[in-house]
Each structure stands twice: as structure tokens, then as C-alpha cells.
């Protein structure tokens, strides 16, 4: 498999991971929110209002925004030979997966991201080692891009969740039930 092919798989791996979150996050939070409040009150105070208030479709809007950016950057990296930039993005994703693994260990049970985190981990490690072995990436530039990408990914998360909240508000207005006479319900 060429480096370009390996790099091109990244958006697919990302989406497989996100599908688990899209499908499982809302029901998991509904079931485990009270336990999270008891066991990790500081975390629950941040996570539950942020994610628990979003519908699955609104959360998906955030994922789509991230996917489009990741896909554009991946294919730009392939087209222009920006392997260190791409490796930095992959390292940021790898860090994200490691955080999920840590969260699951702390929770001591299933979390709605662990299965695909464990499945994506070997791809991330293999891709980084394959690019390094081929000489396509260097430790210094990759480390710099990794730090920059991690910061930008987490800053973008706030933008993506802001878009999701705006979508939620718009959908609430656009698809609000109407009375038989066409007026909004009271």
C-alpha cells in the first residue's frame, strides 16, 4: 500500500469512529448521566450540558463539519506532499483515541467510543510508522504539526459544537409542530 493510499484511508477511519459516537452517545448519556453526575461531578457539569442537550442530528452536524475539514486537509496533504502536516493531524486523532481509552478505563465500563478507538489505534500507529520508515515524515516537523493540529482540533470542536447548537435552534423553529389552523402551538 502506498503512502497516499494509507493517508487516504484516514477520513474513512475517522468516520467509522464517529459513527459509534453518533449512534451511541445520546442513549449512553441518557442511561449514564446520573451515574456520571455522582462519580465525576466536575466532568458531568461540563459534558452533560454540552453534549446531552444536542439531538443526534445536531451532533451529526458537528461531525460533518469536522469530517469535511479533515477530508480537505487529507487530500490537500496528498496532492501537495504535506506529509508532516497530515501526520500531525493523525497524531491529534491518535491523542483523541488515547483520551477515549483513558475515559473508558476511568469509567470502568463501555463508553460510546471505545470499540472504534481500539480498532482505529492500529491504523494510526501503522500509518505513522509506515510514513516514517519511508522517509516521508520527519520527527521535528511532525511533532510541531502534531502540537498545532491538537490545539486546532480542540479549538475547532468549539466551532463545530456551536454550529450544532445553531442547527438545533434552527431545526426547532423550522420543524416545530403547528396547530391544525397553521398557527404555532401555544
TrEMBL record:
Transmembrane recorded as keyword: yes
Record keywords, A-Z: Membrane, Transmembrane, Transmembrane helix
Pfam families on file: HXXEE (PF13787)
Database matches in InterPro entries: HXXEE
Residues spanning the membrane: 50-69, 75-98, 110-131, 143-164
Residues forming coiled coils: none
Name of the protein in its database record: HXXEE domain-containing protein
